[in-house]
Structure formats: C-alpha cells, structure tokens
Fold these 2 entries.
Entry 1:
Amino acid sequence: MKNIEIRTATQDDAIHISILGKITFTETFGHLFKDPSDLQHYLETTFSVTKIDAGLRKMTAIFWLAFANGQPVGYAKLKLNSTTSFTHFKAVCQLQKIYVKKDFLSFKIGHKLQDQLLLKATELHYNYIWLSVLNSNERAIRFYKKNGFDIIGNHDFTIGKEHFDFFAMGKKLM
C-alpha cells in the first residue's frame, strides 16, 4: 500500500495541477478525439499553468492535491456558489473535477478526494452539490451513484470538432 496524502492546494501547486490535468484528461478522454490538434489545444488552454494559477486565486474555487509516496497523482476542484438549472436548492456548489492518474485508481484516491471535497462543502453550509460526467463514462457514473449522486439532467459540450453528451448528477448535502 502506498502512503497517500491529501492536502489543500496552494499557489505553488499550479504546475502540479497543470501537469496532472493534462495527463489525467488525456488518459480519460484522449481516445475520443479524432483530431489530435483539438485535444492539444484544449489541454494547452484549459490546463495552462497561468489558467490554473488564476483558478487557485479565485475565492470561489478550492483545489486539493493527492500524493502517493510524495508524488502528485490526483487532484480535485470544488466550485462554490455554482447554481444550475437542474435544481431548486439555494446554497449550491459544484464538484468540478476529480482526476487521478490511471495507475493509482485502485488506491481509492478519488474517493478520498471526494470525501475532502464533500466535507468542505458541508462545513461551508452548502446544501446541494452537482457535477457533470460524460454519459459514456460508466466507471465514473457508477462511482458517483455509489456515493449518493443521482442523474438530474443532461447537457452537451463541444471541444473543437468533437461533441460530447454529459449527465448532470446531484446530491443533497444537508
């Protein structure tokens, strides 16, 4: 068993999150892109160190990093005050990202990141949390359903020439 550590990310962690974002997004979704330039453009814009650094500075975002034996292997992001048309709740936040490097999925790091994220959302008195998950990502859908999330709607998203369909999932916190 590896020594797993989860901690809140700081400004100094932007480079770790940038690298993890590019690796884990590619591991999870890279095969869905017919044009590699679409994937590369998305990675460079979404996971640039500058963009991650700006995200870490926002008062409406909290990031966590997961380490295995001191090596960064995953991260999570909670977006505060993230309303959605899929629910009537007032105090709503969004589980925006949980990504773990493929080689470390069996160590339940995603679950540990989610626990930290849900604890913080509850401490901050949010009463509902939602997320988006690719509707063909059966592993992630099973994970979230097992952890009390229900499908509450659907939406789509386009990256380059690729069109993706997502489920919105939600969970009452209090």
Entry 2:
Amino acid sequence: MSELEKFRTAKDGFFRDHPQSPLTREQKQSFSGLNYFPENADLRLEVKADELPVKERIEMQTSTGDTQVYFRHSRFKFRAEGQDSELTIYEGPNGFFLPFVDSLAGKETYGAGRYLEPEPLPGGRFLVDFNLAYNPYCAYNERWSCPLTPFENRLKVPIRAGEKLFDADH
C-alpha cells in the first residue's frame, strides 16, 4: 500500500468513526469511503513560487456569508493536461493555503473548489501535491463554513487528482 493509500484509508476511518468528522450521524451509517481519482504522479509538483512584494490582504467570502482574512503570498505556474496554468498561494493564521476550482467542478469535483496546504521548501519552492486535494467540510453538510475560492484560482484545466465529489448515498 502506498503512502497515499494509507493516508486515504486513515481519512476514511476518521470520517466514518471520529466524533469530529464532518459527516452527520445519518451520513456515517451508509459511509463506505470517499471518492478519489487514482494517484497521479504528474500532479505531485515541486514549484518555484514567485513571492509577491506586497502581501495584499484578501477577505474570502465563506459558504455561510462570513469572511476570513488571508494574504496573497506568491504565485506559481505549472502545466496540467498540456495547458499552462497559474495559481495564487495564500497565507493565513494556520499557514499556507491553496484553494482552487478546476474545469471538472460540479461534474466530478466539488463545485465550490478543493483545498491544499502547499508545503514550503527551501529557495522559494513549494511542494504542491494535487493528489492530496480535498473537499472543504461544507461539501458534506451545511453546518460548516468554508472559504470560497477566489476568482484568480479558477482553472480552465481539469485536475484529475485528489478527492472527487462526495456521494452522500455512497
């Protein structure tokens, strides 16, 4: 079993059994695991991020109408499905944050986007592993408040890695 498979198995266990799971009691009764894309080595990236000279403050709207404050930290370019793309990495109270929406949103991936926490590396680089892309808790039920992906992080390319849409009947 790969490290990613172990991680996914542990996450499924957390969702099924843990009291802090985002699933409702009813959802847990029929839960048999989250839906994932197969592991995609091409979407495990070490990227050179161009740090922004001014860390502009951004208030991200949330799914419940509130706002959360982040700062634009850096931007990076990458290729996926043969297309050039660019994303912004934000910094918040809990570290680096990378929300994004891909072209599969609402069909194969969560419509409001998925999240990553890019791992900083030396020399202004980040590990961005889209295989770890996950749905925010508001994808499972409405009691959660989640930041909505800013327009600048909406991609025209599919990202076939990480979590797929949650199937409540799964």
